[in-house]
Amino acid sequence: MTPPASTAPGVGNPVMERLQEVGALTRVIEKGLGGVLGVNGTGLSAMEHLAGEGPLTAKDIADRLRVSTAASTHIVDRLEKAGHVVRRPHATDRRKVLVEPVQESVTRLFDHLDPLLRGVEGLVEALSPGDRDVVANFLNEVVRIYTDTADSLPRG
């Protein structure tokens, strides 16, 4: 059961309220990007990892998404069927297969994300070095708390 809005954590705290708003808007953006690419949220998350990190194994994808390797295989199957990834043999380990993002899909993804990324980058660049350190330390702790929570949840 959800606590009443007046007693929910963060109510009346502008920083907490903005973080909650960022979270909600992130989900809206993810839904829109998923629609553009024709993938669900998990497929979009996999694409984001592949676009940012390059080719990964299905096991690597499973670890990053915190899902089982079987679920990761299904995700890769759907992405491959949609034309967003290809499977390639690993260059040095014949037992492994790398999942490689298709450049056209990565380009489409970043075409939509570019205004957001450039806008946030501009905000960061406008901060003084001291303010940047404060924000970076705060966000590092937010990421740690999120990671601890994600690690405590059952894998999908």
TrEMBL record:
UniProt keyword terms in alphabetical order: DNA-binding
Please name the Gene3D superfamilies in this protein's record: Winged helix-like DNA-binding domain superfamily/Winged helix DNA-binding domain
Record has Ubl conjugation as a keyword: no
Q: What is this protein called?
A: DNA-binding MarR family transcriptional regulator
**Pfam families tied to this protein:** MarR_2 (PF12802)
A Gene Ontology biological process in which this protein takes part is: response to stress
* Molecular function (Gene Ontology), one example: DNA-binding transcription factor activity
Provide the HTH marR-type domain boundaries.
Answer: 32-132
From the broadest rank down, the organism's phylogenetic lineage runs: Bacteria, Bacillati, Actinomycetota, Actinomycetes, Pseudonocardiales
Q: Domain of life, per the record? A: Bacteria
Query: Whose protein is this, by species?
Result: Actinokineospora cianjurensis
